[in-house]
Amino acid sequence: MILSKEQLEKFVAEIEPLDDGIMDAAQYRLDHLTKPRGSLGRLESMARRVCGIRKSLTPVLKNKLILTFAGDHGVVEEGVSSVPQEVTRQMVYNFLAGGAGVNVLARHVGAEVRVIDVGVAASLDAEGLFCHKVKHGTDNMMKGPAMSEEEALAAIAVGMECGSKAISDGAQILGTGEMGIGNTTPSAALFAVLLDLDVSEVTGRGTGVDDKTLNHKIEVIRKSLAINRKLLRSPLEILAAVGGLEIAAICGMILEAARRRVPVVVDGFISSAGALVAMKLNRIALDYCFFSHLSAEQGHRHFFATTGLKPILHLDMRLGEGTGAALAMELIEASVKIITEMATFDEAGVNA
Amino acid sequence: MILSKEQLEKFVAEIEPLDDGIMDAAQYRLDHLTKPRGSLGRLESMARRVCGIRKSLTPVLKNKLILTFAGDHGVVEEGVSSVPQEVTRQMVYNFLAGGAGVNVLARHVGAEVRVIDVGVAASLDAEGLFCHKVKHGTDNMMKGPAMSEEEALAAIAVGMECGSKAISDGAQILGTGEMGIGNTTPSAALFAVLLDLDVSEVTGRGTGVDDKTLNHKIEVIRKSLAINRKLLRSPLEILAAVGGLEIAAICGMILEAARRRVPVVVDGFISSAGALVAMKLNRIALDYCFFSHLSAEQGHRHFFATTGLKPILHLDMRLGEGTGAALAMELIEASVKIITEMATFDEAGVNA
To answer: What is the secondary structure of A60-84 as a DSSP string?
Structure first.
């Protein structure tokens, strides 16, 4: 799929607001279920929102699907990660073999995991892998833009396409996931630019760098933003200049989910960067997003504080891949069953 | 089962510490799985603890069971709740019909719910109900002790017996639950005495009382503590004087789970009061407990702040019944699968 800038604009304009009428009806039902009003807290607000997304008082979220996009980052040549780039490729094979964290947690909640090569810096071909490589890793953003605008659009299109296929295949709720050594670096860059935060606030230890490397990483991001400063205009240009291929794909997937009125669970720090770009393209896309957890990657809390969004889980996780999305999906599905399976006061003969 | 004070003491002394050797081995495995060290956060510490509880590196938590104890409270005649006492009985029937919140969430995670009448103020007899009534509700604690010491012991014994049967029936993880109109009142009283907190700090709105009733509720608890002050000595005497039958049963169930080395998931505010009594009888019992969530009932946060314990979920729930336990069980089971199902770096051929 070739996506032009104009087509992207047209596409994002097709995202519609939630259905307020259905949400009011959902609230009415929630208020008449056999429990003190509001006593299921955030489960209730999640359920109401899913109803508004699906335009239904009986939404079903049984078919869960996580899309894990893999991509590499040219900026790793600056030494911003403690892990070698080849681990991206190795982990893709681990995903396909079912041995990674996301596989275990997705199996636990009954979700399918699809692994997409959108930009691994190695030629991959394996059974079960969705091959949509745009480029063998981004370019080093400290030396210029990570991607051209066309490449960023192509990666967004991969996310849309994979999201579309997942929905056509029956997925009722989608989760985002990613793998890409070095990808906390472009994510931090995107947070800094798009939320107007200082680089040091949004830069963390990723897979676990020491103090010295952390300071170096902050410097690398500052320099990348400086060298690309003329390109930091629209969300798309910013994504191209200092983003990543898997981050762009996540952005596209979220936009497609929103356009198709399917709830989408945003995984952690890196996925939130993709969601942030989607939200800058069309703020309404956010209404379709559930933020699965507060990552232990420092900076994620600034994302939440600045946007006013609220994560569902607080488990000090920082693995990515879609692990947080897997766990949160199960809670969102639970929330919907509150509406569809709990008895009302009348039905149960309980005094209101 | 008749339980004497001496038998209770002997029983609680049988609770053994976690197995440090197994926990070290679990940590070693966690550190060699294909993920940055520590990146699954609290899932890792939960998994390690389950291994230490079960004395196994391959624990299985598939068979989940929630025990929901129902009991009434004489103190409701002081007007501390906005809901009539008969709702306890009505909700028991709702549980048995499968229409309550705990039923929906337990079904969602594949957990069985057993409903036990340990002290409902009405004669109940229905298929599926476990009848272990100690008393038709507690006495009004504002006029004297809620229970005699013998009654409290009998209720503890009910919890032990039901816990024991659940484990013998194959449960691999237990969850606590309760139903009892008015039971935030004795719970707050227990928190105040056992944690040495001011009554106003631990008293909340329960099912949703207004400001005036909240102040009255605080007064009722203060007066109850004053009139019973000579009885507020040992944990057992305190439980008898200002506790509840279902709270005592939860305490007994937790002690039994700990003695049998079975992880037990503590539901919310009221269940935490039961856990607090268990912990005062033998601090080691806590090592077997997982606190499912931070209740929106104000006071629960003081429980956590004072004890240093950490809840798993933060969803602003305040329904009780075992709803929080159901959701958290699923996460604890997930944590264990990390250890048993994830590949190590060696197994997956990934660079450590």
So the answer is: ---SEEEEEEEE--GGGGG---SS-
A245-259 and A235-242 helices, crossing angle to 10°: 150
B343: CATH: 1.10.1610.10
Q: Specify whether the CB–CB gap between A238 and A190 falls below 8 A.
A: yes
Centre a 10 Å sphere on the Cβ of residue B149 and count the other Cβ atoms it contains: 16
Same domain, B204 and B303: yes
Q: What one-letter code names the amino acid at A272?
A: S
Taking an 8 Å cut-off on Cβ atoms, the answer to whether A296 and B34 are in contact is: no
Q: How close does chain A come to B234, measured CA to CA in Å? A: 34
Contacts of B100 (CB under 8 A, 6+ apart): A34, A35, A342, A343, A348, B91, B94, B321
**Same domain (yes/no): B75, B21:** no
Which one of the listed residues B321, B330, B333, B341 is annotated catalytic? B321
Q: What is the pLDDT of residue A180?
A: 98
Specify the CATH number for the domain of residue B175: 3.40.50.10210
Which pLDDT value is given to residue A225? 98
Give yes or no: residues A51 and A71 share one domain. no
Same domain, A54 and A69: no
- The total number of structural domains in chain B stands at 2
- Tell which of A83, A94, A207, A321 to mutate to test the B interface (max B CBs under 10 Å): A94
**What's the helix, strand, coil split of chain A in %, to 5?**
55, 10, 35
- Return all residues near B127 (Cβ < 8 A) that are at least 6 apart: B96
pLDDT tens, position by position, for chain A (352 residues)? 789 999 999 999 999 999 999 999 999 999 999 999 999 999 999 999 999 999 999 999 999 999 999 999 999 999 999 999 999 999 999 999 999 999 999 999 999 999 999 999 999 989 999 999 999 999 999 999 999 999 999 999 999 999 999 999 999 999 999 999 999 999 999 999 999 999 999 999 998 999 999 999 999 999 999 999 999 999 999 999 999 999 999 999 999 999 999 999 999 999 999 999 999 999 999 999 999 999 999 999 999 999 999 999 999 999 999 999 999 999 999 999 999 999 999 999 998 7
Chain A residues in contact with B103 by the CB 8 A cut-off are 341
Residues of chain B where predicted confidence (pLDDT) is lower than 50 = none
Amino acid at A31: D
Q: What is the dihedral of CA B157, B161, B166, B172, to 10 degrees?
A: 60
Q: How far apart are CA A125 and CA A321, in angstroms?
A: 20
The answer to ipTM > 0.90 is yes
Q: From the list B105, B315, B334, which residue is nearest A41 (CB)?
A: B315
Q: Is the overall model pTM greater than 0.90, yes or no?
A: yes
For B124, phi then psi, to 5°, come to: -120, 140
**Could you list the residue range(s) of the whole structural domain that residue A129 is in?**
64-330
B189 and B260 inside one domain: yes
Q: Are B210 and B192 members of one domain?
A: yes
Say whether both A42 and A132 belong to one domain.
Answer: no
Give CA–CA dist A5/A200, Å, rounded: 32
What pLDDT score does A352 carry? 79
At position A166, the amino acid (one-letter code) is A
**Are B124 and B117 a contacting pair, CB within 8 Å?**
yes
Asked if the Cβ–Cβ distance from B108 to A343 is below 8 Å, we say: no
pLDDT of residue B314: 98
Nearest to A342 among B100, B208, B315 (CB): B100
For residue A343, the chain B residues in CB contact (below 8 A) are 94, 97, 99-100
Residues B14 and B71 in one domain: no
